[in-house]
């Protein structure tokens, strides 16, 4: 979509199917070039001036149609499509996809195995909390995890509501082997802000763990 025009994805926006397909084709080319096997298929926003409840069915129908198209295209590239619930209480009041429950229900209707949930724990905590049970319940659908402390959206060891050492251990116990994206705004210097990661790996008995020498 056109961010300058206030768009935040197109996958669930009625009447923009052609633009969605064009942008998806470009995204696949980029992903292929950099060797990235996952693409975030952004749902988009409820149209300005529209009532969410009034347009919800039409937007879901559009979303399902576009996700099926995307899944079939991505399957040819051996890629996975991701949908991310974004909270509408703080971050974006008009974003269409807001909770993991909504995402799971839509993916069930779409019925494609190469579509997964991009679960950002920042958004999930704001909308529903209950992170342990949500991670356990939706684990088979999770294709990517993102993290940030709540409510400041800074480093995991910054003051806030979430106990990330516990969450990381839970993900390990569930068998999560994918990446954990640091979807946060560093409070200061980026490399200094990665101190939480060095401390975590040291607590797990690893000198450097997943951090690079450059970061060290």
UniProtKB/TrEMBL annotation:
Q: What are its GO biological-process terms?
A: glyoxylate metabolic process
Q: Which Gene3D superfamilies match?
A: Divalent-metal-dependent TIM barrel enzymes
Every Xylose isomerase-like TIM barrel domain range: 9-199
Molecular function terms from GO? hydroxypyruvate isomerase activity
Q: Which UniProt keywords apply?
A: Isomerase
PANTHER family for the chain: HYDROXYPYRUVATE ISOMERASE-RELATED (PTHR43489:SF6), ISOMERASE (PTHR43489)
Name this protein carries in UniProt: HYI isomerase
Naturally occurring in which organism (per UniProt)? Uria aalge
Q: What taxonomic ancestry is recorded?
A: Eukaryota, Metazoa, Chordata, Craniata, Vertebrata
């Amino acid at each position: 979509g056109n961010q300058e025009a206030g768009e935040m994805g197109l996958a669930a926006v009625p009447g923009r199917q052609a633009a969605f397909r064009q942008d998806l084709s470009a995204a696949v080319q980029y992903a292929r070039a950099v060797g990235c096997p996952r693409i975030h298929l952004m749902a988009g926003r409820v149209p300005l001036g529209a009532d969410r409840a009034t347009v919800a069915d039409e937007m879901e129908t559009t979303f399902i149609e576009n996700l099926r198209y995307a899944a079939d295209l991505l399957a040819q590239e051996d890629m996975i499509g991701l949908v991310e619930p974004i909270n509408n209480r703080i971050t974006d009041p008009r974003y269409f996809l807001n909770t993991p429950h909504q995402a799971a229900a839509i993916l069930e209707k779409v019925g494609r195995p190469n579509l997964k949930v991009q679960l950002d724990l920042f958004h999930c905590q704001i909308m529903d909390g209950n992170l342990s049970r949500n991670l356990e319940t939706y684990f088979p659908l999770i294709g990517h995890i993102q993290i940030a402390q709540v409510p400041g959206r800074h480093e995991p060891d910054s003051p806030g509501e979430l106990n990330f050492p516990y969450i990381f251990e839970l993900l390990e116990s569930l068998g999560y082997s994918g990446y954990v994206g640091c979807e946060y705004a560093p409070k200061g210097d980026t490399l200094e802000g990665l101190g939480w990661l060095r401390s975590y790996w040291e607590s797990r008995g690893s000198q450097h763990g997943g951090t690079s020498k450059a970061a060290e």
